[in-house]
Amino acid sequence: MTQKIAVAIIHGIGKQVPEFAAEISDALMSHCGETCRADIVIEPIYWAKVMQDAENELQQRLQQGGKLAFPRLREFAIDFVADALAYQSAPDDRSAYDGIHRVFAQAIHLLAEKAGPTAPLCIIAHSLGTIISSNYIYDLQIEPFRPIISGISKTR
């Protein structure tokens, strides 16, 4: 048996679908070919679901006041700017920051189960996903027993 490699793919800001990583996963696997395809374990980190309900509610509340000018610009601002604004560390564990990190921790834990706890980890991230990854790894070093991290990932 050869060493597995765990690959986490995390998206950036904007409206995303759960299948966001399908194209890059397929491309990665096709480049690997038969020699290493069985050794690559890929797990997408789909954090948009943490934000989407609140963004949909904001959009609906804005529309309740009547017809607004620039509806596409407003939708763009909500889909893109709101992600970046809401992703801020807060003192309680109900923040978007902690919710997104909870999704990240669950995906990393799942990767460890699939690839093995000693598998090297490669993170492919885009845009805000890069910042989320960096913050998660930083937080893990500073406060490794933080409940949202240690409560999920039992493999270290």
Can you describe this structure?
By secondary structure, the protein is mainly alpha-helical. It has six helices and three strands; from the N terminus they run βαβαααβαα. The model has no long low-confidence stretch (mean pLDDT 87). The two termini are 21 Å apart. It has one domain. Strands 2-1-3 form a three-stranded parallel β-sheet, with helices on both faces. Helix 2 packs across helix 3 (71-86). The chain is flat, with a radius of gyration of 18 Å. Helix content is 56%, strand content 11%.
State the distance separating the first and last CA atoms. 21 Å
Biggest β-sheet: strands ordered side by side in the sheet: 2-1-3
- Percentage of helical residues? 55-70%
Cα gyration radius (Å): 18 Å
Backbone shape: flat
